[in-house]
Amino acid sequence: MTIKKFSLRRIRAIRNIRSGVATVDQVCEELRIPQESLRALEQACRTVPDELLAQVEGVLSDNERLRRLVADLLPDISRD
After folding, report:
1. pTM above 0.70, yes or no
2. Mutual orientation of helices 50-73 and 8-19 as an angle, nearest 10°?
3. What is the pLDDT of residue 54?
4. Is the dihedral of CA 6, 7, 10, 14 positive or negative?
5. Which residues contact 40 (CB under 8 A, 6 or more apart)?
6. What DSSP string runs through 7-36?
7. How many Cβ atoms sit within 10 Å of the Cβ of residue 41?
8. Per-residue pLDDT for the chain (80 aa), expressed as one digit of tens each?
9. Which of 43, 46, 57, 79 qualifies as a FRET site for 71, CA 20 to 30 Å off?
10. What is the C-alpha separation between 50 and 29, in angstroms, rounded?
11. Which of 16, 63, 62, 68 lies closest to 42, judged by CA?
12. pLDDT by residue (tens digit) across 40-49?
């Protein structure tokens, strides 16, 4: 299985597992991520340092906030 994209949820899941905050089963249940997908992501990220994952998480979080801000600024298209 190949990983096509990194999502904020998935990066947080990996960081929670690595830090010992939660087990794989707990993370999968809480975030509704299939175990196979999470294990594939873990495998893909096994050589990525925790500091880099934290930076990626921060960037994805900032991106999500920016998307919400832009969406709030756009006029509601359904009013036209």
Report:
1. yes
2. 150
3. 93
4. positive
5. 1, 2, 3
6. -HHHHHHHHHHHHTSS-HHHHHHHHT--HH
7. 20
8. 455 577 888 898 899 899 998 898 998 888 888 888 888 888 888 899 999 999 999 999 999 999 998 888 887 654 54
9. 57
10. 23
11. 16
12. 888 888 899 9
Query: 24 near 40, Cβ under 8 Å?
Result: no
> Which three-class secondary structure state does DSSP give residue 1?
coil
Rounded distance between C-alpha atoms, residue 73 and residue 80, angstroms = 16
| The pair of three-digit structure tokens given for residue 6, joined into one six-digit string | 């990194």
Give the rounded distance of the alpha carbon of 21 from its chain centre. 16
Measured in residues, the chain has a length of 80
